[in-house]
Amino acid sequence: MSRFINLKQNKGQEGFTLIETLVAISILLTVLVSAYSAAQTSIRSSNMAKDRVVAFFLAQDAFEHVENIRMDNACDSSASSWLDGVDQCTGTDRCGIDVFQETGGEVIAREVAVFDESITTRLYKHSVSGVYDDDSGWDPTPFSREVWIEGIVSGEEAVVHVEIEGPRGADLRLRKTLFNWPSEAKQCS
């Protein structure tokens, strides 16, 4: 009777060799690394899409603000022109949209202002209302916005440009043509 364990493999025994185990582990690691890489790419793409949406909405906000000024001027008999309030943003002067808020966080007024040492292109976000502005007391964002107007044709047409700079390729440069409405189209309340 032998009390020693036979280390030789018998022909009837089954099991994995060291090489088979290493090959299986390397295949498993390859699959896991591929899945991790795909997840990272998906997260990066999602963040890029989010930044592009925010940039687009910041540009849309600027366009709507200029359109609101045009509409207010159409109803205001004291306005000197249909672009009164944004006419300082023509030529080489670029402007920002300055947001004023009351303590409740609601937007109560906006104005267009030419950039100087008090108005910057960098945007900050109000933590409660989510409003973007140049107020450096708010939470910093990676976005900046510039607005300018060119191509005023015969006082009837103007091209509004908005340039947004953002992170991860979220830069946008959009333009929109605005027209001076005829007096019969004005609907003032």
Can you tag this structure with a few keywords?
189 residues; rod-shaped; five-stranded antiparallel β-sheet; alpha+beta; 7 strands
Question: Describe it for me?
Answer:
The protein has about 190 residues and is α+β, with helices and mostly antiparallel strands. The protein has one helix at about 20-75; strands at about 95-100, 105-115, 120-125, 130-135, 140-155, 155-165, 170-180. A 5-stranded antiparallel β-sheet has the order 4-3-5-6-7, with helices on one face. Strands 1-2 form a two-stranded antiparallel ribbon.
Summarize the structure.
The chain has 189 residues and is α+β, with helices and mostly antiparallel strands. It has one helix at residues 18-75; strands spanning 95-101, 107-114, 122-125, 132-133, 139-153, 157-165, 172-179.
- State the end-to-end CA separation: 110 Å
Shape: rod-shaped
Residue fraction in strands: 25-35%
Number of contiguous helices:
1
Which bin fits the share of residues in helices? 25-40%
Number of strands: 7
User: Could you name the ranges where pLDDT drops below 50 across 5 or more consecutive residues?
Assistant: none
Sheet with most strands:
5 strands, antiparallel
Which structural class matches the secondary elements? Answer: alpha+beta
H and E string: HEEEEEEE
- Report the radius of gyration as a whole number of Å: 31 Å
Overall average residue pLDDT: 80
Describe the strand arrangement of the main beta sheet, using strand numbers.
4-3-5-6-7
